[in-house]
Please model this.
Amino acid sequence: MDFGFTSDQQLLKNSARAFLDEHCKPATVRASWDDPRGDNDAMWKEMAQLGWLGLSLPEAHGGSGLGMVETAVLLEEMGHAACPGAYWPTILAATAIGEAGTDAQKKRWLPAIATGEARATTAFLDGDLDWNPDAVTTRARRTSKGWTLSGEKRFVPWAHVANVMLVPARGKEGVTLFALEPSARGLSLSPVAGMDLATRWVHVKLDNVPLAADAVVGNPGQAAPLLAALLRRGAVGAAAEMLGASRRCLEMAVGYAKVREQFGQPIGSFQAIRHKCAEMLVEVENSHSATYYAAWALDAQADDHALAASVAKAYVSDAARKVCGESIQVHGGIGFTWEYDLHLYFKRAKALEPMYGDAEYHRDLIVKHVAG
Amino acid sequence: MDLNYAPEDLAFREATRQWFATNTPSEDLKTLDERKAWHRRMYEAGYVGMLWPKEYGGRDATPMQSAIVSDEMARVSAPPPINGLGIGFIGPTIIVHGTDWQKQRYLKKILTAEEIWCQLYSEPNAGSDLASLKTKAEDAGDHFVVNGQKIWTSSGPIADWGLLLCRTDTSVPKHRGISCVLLNMRQPGVEVRPLKQLTGHSLFSEVFMTNARAEKVDLLGRLGQGWEIAQTTLGYERGANSLGRVTRYNIAFNQLVKAAKALRRDGKPLIENAAVRAKMGRIYAELEVQRYAALRVLSSLQKSEGPGAASSLTKYSYTEFEKRYYETALEILGPSGQLLTSHHDWDDLDTSSGEDGTWATSYLWSRAGTIYSGSSEIQKNVIGERVLGLPKEIRADRVKA
Model:
């Protein structure tokens, strides 16, 4: 039993922190806000060179074959830096291709993702924003040459920069997962702005989009379990990123409470502030336990891995909102300004909160696991 | 990271499970003699004082093994050993600070529960501010004369000895004038009066010392070292009960699920009600996080990374969780959660919480956890100052000192 990182994992964490401290400063994040793409291609290429993009991909396809724990280590650091870009959507979609794709799909996409040439994403949500993988309403119809898809996908992360988008759609045979490329006819993308300007969402319209038969990922009609597994993984990744954001907010609150003076004393000497910081630390450490337990359980395919993923997402969503929000409170007025960097992390945590199943969705899954 | 149990821990768990399956008494233990006999059996099987060094009669067990034993005991609701404070806190303190004579005289009898110990720390006017304690021990040549009052003493009426914090010097700042003395409770100068808690139980007592006698050989450590010793005392035993605690929460949760399937609202089982599910999902997520956190603490104890001040995080986190847990359970159970007995012939609903009786008892006791052994507010001070490095508050007593 060892809950600590191995020396390799610790090394990865340290080098990720060092890289992001240098290459993803708050100013870098701010610069992404006005960019139409919103990500930083130079940084993406460097991340590829560091091996981050291939980290969890199979070795046969240019990756390093590492697991969710290592991925969570990176994602925590990215959250800590409020790093913009399609990292997690890309890796998550690559996981699906790696697990369920055809050889041709793997050869086409995985090496390109590992080298930083391709980005990917998954369109989980339809118009009614139901996370249940069985609730897909986008329609898939078989044609003589393959399929056509019609419907709407909402809040697709980073779809505007993706070279391939995984789209679940419902046909007579059930829910099927398709790989779409941006050039597909009848596909239109409209970016929408959320409060975290370094997170990009896209509304996607599919108007009789024609697809060849080889666009199917996995078996037709049988995508629901794959999507459920993908959501679980997505949820744990989001938890890791929210954990990083809340750790950053805690560090900033504690740092500020040590130097900000009122009534002739540092405000951190007042119990009202100190106790708040202590409560935040407890939430952060519990979030760490929840996130890494779930990441390990996914890697080990432990009996409780599905439960653990839902626990992590349900717990960390709430904890991160609390910690980042309380950090603003500790800072007082300065924490509410545009110029002060705190809102970068506060908003990142908030943007991830509803993704890959919100806390309420996962709480219901938890009860299903325990009580049926 | 590897959260699989080591093969030797799995084997140890299996052996432990079998022992408790065979040996756990089927009837409640009523008398002190019955409880001592059960303690003795556990001791002889090696399940008491497991973390103590072998040379003092312990087992040099790992924190994980100790946690596994408490976990297995929780699974079958085995009665705890009787000398909990002696074994968990006082014996280990004597091992660290005691003289050879003291170790020889006291340790074995703590393990075997031949002598029961209590802790004489809190006073009516020294709770969170423990260092302001006023109980006095005056030098009378070959012994000390002790006068004062203690409160919140566990096992008071059955205790033979007490670990006493007392003031031996009033001329120095308060933390430095405190000494630690081993006090014989069986003497005319010591009177124990049980306190009744709001649960209706009497687990704590007041202890009045009137010209009580403590021998010089029973001074633990140096004169004036008492505060320092008390600080180390608080550091022992963390983690040992962690898994057992979570197992008890789990047993209770299964009972809650059963009740939520039996009770109905709008013609449907309560468990199908969305609001109830949301509450249950939230509290179960917290329960699981307590389990993960327990494993994390055990893992760092295994590597001899003592949790240090971080144990304040654990204590704060689980005691506050416990309040939310039982509050949630009683919201769901309605008036059934408040019953003082769990089985009634007019009701086939089982409203036991699966541990030590009823939800009502657990709910009421949960109010104590955030007060004893350093209140939540004290824990947050410790976390703030010693873990986060925030500046100390300016306090009237520190200014004077």
In short: Chain A has eleven helices and ten strands.
